[in-house]
Amino acid sequence: MILAELRKRPPGREADLSTVCFVREKVSELRQAHFVTLEAAAVEPRGSSDRDHQMRLAFFLAADDERGWRVTSYAEHRPPRGAVARAYLGGGEDVDGLFAAGYVDGGGVEVERVELRFADRTVLEDRPEQDVALFVVDGPVVLPVIVALIAGNGQEIVTHRVLPG
To answer: How far apart are CA 6 and CA 19, in angstroms?
Structure first.
């Protein structure tokens, strides 16, 4: 499904689809979030470092009664370049739930877990892998959402608003 979507709606720059690597996934009954990497097919004209040759994409899928699953959206994510503690999450919500995905950076402190704290006091948790956090929620959510990065000792590294940003 994701490869078919990349063929149908390629990302903003040319990609080598033979290099797709599935990094993480989060699946619920009605939603899926996938984080994949793949290589750009050509060197970027800006002549930057190798990290610009790797594309990192978050895909969001929703259950579809007729076709099983359908890709609702996807977006490219770039890893953080600074030492500022922050969650670089993107995504969105609708009347039926929420998707969120992106990189987390503890600013030099290892991030053990990431919490999404909703206005109605609901808290969702993810344990990042390869510095990537993913969230899917089936059902209505109450915005705004605050993200908290938590260290292994249970201390908050940073909190800030993510959705809506």
So the answer is: 12
Give the distance from CA 105 to its chain's centroid: 13
Indicate whether this model's pTM tops 0.85.
yes
The ranges assigned to domains in the chain are 2-163
Alpha carbon distance 91, 100 (integer Å) = 4
Lay out the sheet containing 132-138: strands in order across: 86-94, 97-105, 132-138
Distance between CA 4 and CA 37 in Å, rounded? Answer: 15
164 burial (CB, 10 Å; 0-12 / 13-18 / 19+) is exposed
> 52 pLDDT exceeds 80?
no
Residue type, 125: E
- Residue 24: exposed, middle, or buried by beta-carbon count in 10 A (0-12, 13-18, 19+)? middle
Distance CA 133, CA 104 (A): 7
